[in-house]
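Q: Start with the shorter request: fold the first protein.
A: Done. Sequence, then structure:
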Amino acid sequence: MVQASLNTIIEAIQPVDVEAVQAAADHLDQLTKPPGSLGKLEELAKQLAGITGITVPKIGKKAVIVMAADHGVCEEGISAFPSEVTQQMVMNFCSGGAAVNVLARQAGADVICVDIGVNAQLEHPLLYSRKVRFGTANMAKGPAMSEQEAFQAIHTGIKLVEELVAQGYTLFATGEMGIGNTTASSALLAVLTEEAVEHTVGRGTGIDDERLRHKQAVIARAIELNQPNKDNPLDVLAKVGGLEIAGLTGVILGAALHRCPIVIDGFISSAAALVASRIAPLSVYYMIASHQSQEKGHECLLKAIGLSPMLHMDMRLGEGTGALLAFPIIESAIKIMMEMATFASAGISQTDNHTNS
């Protein structure tokens, strides 16, 4: 039943519009500049055209969706912070005091904070309560969750995007909060890419060498115990993943379903993007990688998905902070398409596809 439902979602995701991509490329070549001289901005403009099916798309409302959940594996002492920080930070997001709130205000975006699996009963007028369960189980002792729960979290992300699209949102970014989620993300990366745990596990919130070795051992034990099937991304997600990662997987798939660009944040968001790409390969074409974080394994994750980050800012906070920095760049690509003069409209000669100097 779960796989059948997943197959329905996969089949509904369409390829990008190649005719719109070509129309955007033709338009870019008529603008008053040497061809290709705006580099990645031009590639971005063409990608946005393909995603939306519109040569010069317009950006409506913008949102960063911050999925929050707890991780049972924290019982193993793998984080520098206690699990209670998850719920405390959720309240901080809702009151507007976190880094993601500051950068969202700067970018003109809304923060959509979602309780998909926090291990506490939380209430706030701005909180989207979509709890699947009160945190995952300890993956070092058994599966983090059932396949049904993993699918429910994915479906929750998809339905949320559907809700927001109906409200006029057209540009989305992924964000997350969950103490212990670099452990789950590292485990997902190790299984889905068959990379050694030593290459996928980083310091997360800033653990020392001894705790890093312990974290690596815990992840290796969880993988050995649960035996996740690398060819079944839902099985991997259920056994060694997290609820917020599953929710973000749904957000990414939902954006692809609705032909909206989805900006991928850091390590945890990219783990969700990797799962989404293995579930529905066409979803990759709707993803925009914002930055490469300091977290060990993020470069490997991006390569596994086939994404190239726009920024290198030495960030490792998560929350959606890096993705929000990419919003103005995305809007700049569209502004170029909308407002820049063509050779014909500006009365500028065009020789061998270059401007006269």
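Q: Next, the second protein, separately.
A: Sequence, then structure:
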Amino acid sequence: MDKIMNKLKKEIQEFKYKNYENLELFRIKFLGKKKGILTLLFKELKKYPINKRKFYGKIINTLKKNVQNKIQRYTSKKSLKDENMIFDPTIPGKSIEIGSMHPISILKNRMIEIFRKIGFFYVEGPEIEDDWHNFTALNIPINHPSRDMQDTFFLYKNPDILLRTHTSSVQIRYMKKNSPPFRVLSIGKVFRNETISSRSHFMFHQAEGFYIDKKVSFSDLKQTIQYLINSLFGKAKIRFRPSYFPFTEPSAEVDIYFGNNTGWVEIMGCGMIDPKVLKNVNIDSEIYSGFAFGIGIERLSLLIYKVHDIRIYFDNDIRFLRQFKSDF
């Protein structure tokens, strides 16, 4: 016991203050409530006879006071002043490298804000879907030729479970649980078995917007699309071309004019929601009508940022990402 006391006394005397971190470790080591050395020694005294208890108790108390005096000394105002004097504010700090916002995330946030201003609110849905939400409820029955338009990643059959091919499945899920009127925007990943090239990828992000109310017309759709394009590109010339989608009738492709050098560029599809789709989610098409549109975020981003290869968005090259600044 005497050897232990002498060793502790020497260790306390030789303690050198470096910073508050090593002072706190010193305090915990000797005075910690559960595992402090002096705390444990006080508990150990119970095993000794009364005469030895008094003798060693006095020594332990002295060691405890020495520790407390050291701590008090180094936490005094003088020590704080001395430590501040050691700090040199002219020395450069350690730089911390932080990431950049991805251009797809920037554009996603921008679109959410654009549509929020005209009463749309944002929802999300699952990326793994069943056949009914992804196809059948959208007026795409099992033998419908339009299924050939989207080469699908099926996870397993019976029931058919797949990676969603469009965010239109969110439209079905939302309309099943809510009653009109509503204006909704959803953005997320979609998957199609396509050859990867500078203009296509097996995974991309799609924005789906839909608006259902009484007396919604194609004119409302056109005004909404024009508002979106103007918000993204400034005042721009667009055109609507008749097209075909099984879940909208009539349907249209939207092109934007980029001048004589580029000409017209297709950017999205849209249309009035087919009454059969409304029926599938128990919405009375005699009372309500609505429109929907879908647009690829990567395609928009290629045009806005003048990027010529879609694959670079998935490389996560920090040199590329550093070029983009968020407006939000």
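Q: Describe the second briefly.
A: The chain has two domains: 2-86, 103-321. The mean pLDDT is 87.
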